[in-house]
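Input chain follows. Return structure tokens only.
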Amino acid sequence: MTELADVTGLLLSRIRDVPDYPKPGVMFKDITPLLADPAAFTALTDTLADLSVRHGATKVVGLEARGFILGAPVALRAGLGFIPVRKAGKLPGATLRQAYDLEYGSAEIEVHAEDLTAGDRVMVIDDVLATGGTAAASLELIRRSGAQVAGVAVLMELGFLDGRRKLEQALDGAPLEALITV
């Protein structure tokens, strides 16, 4: 068994299935037991930090909101800066904003305009890759800032939603790493 397989097993054992949440027919993947377990949270943080360093990142972007919980300790562990990508209207000062489509409607995310520069290589961290819309919008923001995308890393990919395929064009050759695929 490889080291990554050991980590994946530990992580899976700390993710709780919650049936019919937030609506009937949905199996919610609750990561709060993982976050509450110092060994599992450390293993997750170390693995994502190693990926960030391996892909040559100079900064880590965390997507609101659970991407903040994962991205900040990953950046700290890897010795990199942390940049939050927020829902529109949550950041003071000059921002770059990107709209994207949701299943039923649209949304916007933003980043401080000065937080990313042309010399940065950015690793995007989030908890789940679902449809890929938020991740794709974050990649567009990163490129519009002049920075390069080092990659995207997520704890869990919901493979049945086909977000990876939808994200391929936005990745433009950058790697997508999912520690768990369900």
